[in-house]
UniProtKB/TrEMBL annotation:
One of its GO terms (molecular function) is DNA-binding transcription factor activity. Pfam families: MarR_2. GO terms for biological process: response to stress. Residues 17-153 form the HTH marR-type domain. It comes from Nocardia speluncae. This is Winged helix-turn-helix transcriptional regulator.
Length: 170
C-alpha cells in the first residue's frame, strides 16, 4: 500500500533511489576502512591518502591537478599543501610534471612507485570486484555507471555549494 496521493511507480522510484543512497553510504564506509588499512600499511597520513585519491581520480578523468587545485579540494593552507606535496614526492608516491599545454603550470601525477604500491594493495580488490560483476549484463553495468556519474556530479555540486557558503578564511 502506498501513501495517499503516491502512485506505485512513484513509490518504486523512491525505494530505488533510497536503495542506491544506502548502497553508496555502505560503499563509502567500507572504502574508508580499506583506505585506512592502505594508509597504515604504507606509513601514510589520512591527508596523504586523500591527496592520492584526488590525484588518481583527476588523472583518470583526464584532468590532472595542480597543487593549488589539490589545496582547494582538500581545504588546506598553501603551506600545508606544499608540505604534503613535498612529502609525497619524497616518498615516491607522486611526481610533478610541467603541463605540456601551459609550461607555467605544474601538474601532479602518481609516480611509478606509487602506482606499483597501489596496484599491489588494490589489485586483489579489482579482481574481486570484476568477479562479483561477471554475472551482470554489460547493459546493467553501463546503467550503473550512468547512475554513479550523476550521483558524483550531484555530490560535487553540493560540495561546491557548501564551500561557497563557508565564511572567508574558514
Amino acid at each position: 500500500m502506498t501513501p495517499a496521493g503516491e502512485t506505485a511507480d512513484t513509490a518504486a522510484r523512491i525505494s530505488a533511489e533510497t536503495d542506491i543512497a544506502t548502497d553508496i553510504r555502505a560503499l563509502t564506509a567500507i572504502s574508508e576502512q580499506i583506505a585506512h588499512l592502505f594508509a597504515r600499511s604504507h606509513a601514510l597520513r589520512s591527508t596523504d591518502f586523500r591527496a592520492l585519491m584526488h590525484i588518481a581520480t583527476a588523472d583518470a578523468e583526464g584532468h590532472p591537478l595542480t597543487a593549488g587545485q589539490l589545496r582547494e579540494l582538500m581545504g588546506l593552507s598553501p603551506a600545508a599543501i606544499t608540505y604534503l606535496v613535498e612529502r609525497m614526492i619524497a616518498s615516491g608516491h607522486i611526481e610533478r610534471e610541467t603541463d605540456p599545454r601551459d609550461r607555467r603550470r605544474v601538474l601532479l601525477h602518481y609516480a611509478d612507485h606509487g602506482m606499483a604500491v597501489a596496484g599491489e594493495f588494490f589489485g586483489p580488490l579489482g579482481g574481486r570486484t570484476r568477479a562479483a560483476m561477471t554475472a551482470l549484463p554489460t547493459d546493467d553495468l553501463r546503467a550503473a555507471h550512468r547512475v554513479l556519474q550523476e550521483v558524483v556530479a550531484a555530490m560535487r555540486d553540493h560540495h561546491t555549494a557548501l564551500n561557497d557558503q563557508r565564511p572567508a578564511g574558514g
